[in-house]
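Why run this: before we spend reagent on co-expression, it is cheaper to look at a predicted model of the complex and decide which construct boundaries make sense. The entries below are exactly what would go into the expression plan.
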Amino acid sequence: MKILCDTHSHTVASTHAYSTVHDYITSAKINGLQLFSLTDHAPSMPDSPHMWHFGNMQVIPRIVDDIAILRGIEANIMNAPYEHATQRNVDLPDSLLPYLDFAIASFHEPVFPPAGIKENTKAAIQAIESGVIQIMGHLGNPNYPLYQEEIVRAAKDNNVLIEINNSSFNHSRNGSAPFCVSLIEFVDKHSWKVSVGSDAHISFQVGIFDQAIEALQRVNFNEKNIANRTPAAFIDFLSEHGKSVAEELQPWLKNLNK
Ligand SMILES: [Zn+2]
Ligand SMILES: [Zn+2]
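The model came back. Tokens follow.
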């Protein structure tokens, strides 16, 4: 199984990550990717960049050295409505939405203190239903018990992907693996889709999905339901969310398929 896009990575803009955009381009090539995504932490997280970081991502070329670069964000699920948006529990202001190709929403301990299963599930479903999220990030974190099947149902109803995060199987969020596997089983049961992300905090990790792929293969997950297996598949998915990046990448995509 080869996955040609990475949907989750962090640059030096979040200072607990250690690589630049340039480093990522180099590593993406070496690691056999055709596309990667910048998804630095949204501002409610300590150590995240200023909101301007995201609005100005338009200066980043769409393609460098045949590698496509998507402009994303890893937003935070919040336990209260976000002050700069209407009726939303993720920290994405309305003004930023036109600049983003997609948004991940995740639970992070400094922003959303772990709560009970009902409260966590409710917050996750609110984020899914917010209409501004395309991917739910690293839901296997054992600090956030969830009614996983309810979340998968809501994700399918709202065309939101369930992320299978490779870092959850090794150095992040200890104890996630069994929860990630059961999540994959529910996604499979409901014939829904995943995205696979490295969650790289240094460029060498970009496009490294070994353990996520192993978990998907263990449950015989249908490859067609991996939304980021090819650039065309992922960009089509973003078009379903009304994102215009498809138009900008069309010439590159055509060349890629030759
Ligand atoms: Zn991080
Ligand atoms: Zn995260």
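The chain has a mean pLDDT of 95. The pocket of zinc ion (ligand 2) is lined by residues 74, 106, 108, 137-138 (CB under 6 Å). Bring this page to Monday's planning discussion.
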